[in-house]
């Protein structure tokens, strides 16, 4: 996956731009249903990305995170660092398409995320849109990302 952060395309995992969503903060102790907690988790993650709060964003990812691309939590942390260093400003438009709960402790979340970043390059703005399928698990009251698949809109997720 590629994200435009200047005139050159740089390889970055979609989650790193969400980037991730995905993406996303723990909501332990939040009042409401598990679905309400997950919606708040997505909003917090969006705020972390836009504030370039890498530490907060990585805190939303389980230490046991693994995905089909071979990424670990540490790999995503490295990619977040690159994205935040290269972009002067990141804006996300996030739409939760579906939340599938598996009891009170696991969920799948399908998101569509529009991403725009500014830099000092030609015209100064780059944008992309992605779909994310995230697997969440409640760990001690906090929701954590344990796996994800993603792709640019219109392409097959992997």
As laid out across the biggest beta sheet, the strand order is 3-4-5-6
Radius of gyration: 15 Å
Q: Provide mean pLDDT, rounded.
A: 82
* Helix/sheet category: alpha+beta
Distance between the termini: 10 Å
Number of helices in the DSSP assignment: 4
Quick one: biggest sheet? 4 strands, antiparallel
Number of strands: 6
Strand content: 35-45%
Q: Indicate the percent of residues in helices.
A: 25-40%
Q: What form results from the Cα inertia axes?
A: globular
Features:
single chain, 158 residues, four-stranded antiparallel beta sheet, two-stranded antiparallel sheet
Write the layout of secondary structure elements.
Layout: E1 2-4, E2 9-11, H1 14-19, H2 34-50, H3 54-58, H4 73-86, E3 89-102, E4 106-118, E5 125-139, E6 142-152
Antiparallel strand pairs: 1-2, 3-4, 4-5, 5-6
Describe the structure in your own words.
The protein is α+β, with helices and mostly antiparallel strands and 158 residues long. Helices cover 27% and strands 37% of the residues. The chain contains four helices and six strands, in the order ββααααββββ. The protein has helices at 14-19, 34-50, 54-58, 73-86; strands at residues 2-4, 9-11, 89-102, 106-118, 125-139, 142-152. The strands form two sheets. It has a four-stranded antiparallel sheet with strand order 3-4-5-6. The relative contact order is 0.23. The model is unreliable at 1-30 (pLDDT under 50).
């Amino acid at each position: 996956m590629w994200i435009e952060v200047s005139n050159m395309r740089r390889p970055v995992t979609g989650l790193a731009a969400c980037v991730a969503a995905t993406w996303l903060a723990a909501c332990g102790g939040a009042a409401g249903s598990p679905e309400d907690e997950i919606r708040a988790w997505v909003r917090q993650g969006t705020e972390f990305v836009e504030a370039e709060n890498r530490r907060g964003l990585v805190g939303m990812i389980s230490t046991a995170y693994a995905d089909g691309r071979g990424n670990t939590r540490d790999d995503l942390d490295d990619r977040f660092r690159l994205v935040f260093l290269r972009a002067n400003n990141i804006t996300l438009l996030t739409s939760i398409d579906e939340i599938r709960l598996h009891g009170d402790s696991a969920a799948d979340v399908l998101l569509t995320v529009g991403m725009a970043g500014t830099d000092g390059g030609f015209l100064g703005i780059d944008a992309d849109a992605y779909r994310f399928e995230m697997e969440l698990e409640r760990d001690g009251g906090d929701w954590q990302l344990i796996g994800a698949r993603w792709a640019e809109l219109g392409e097959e997720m992997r």
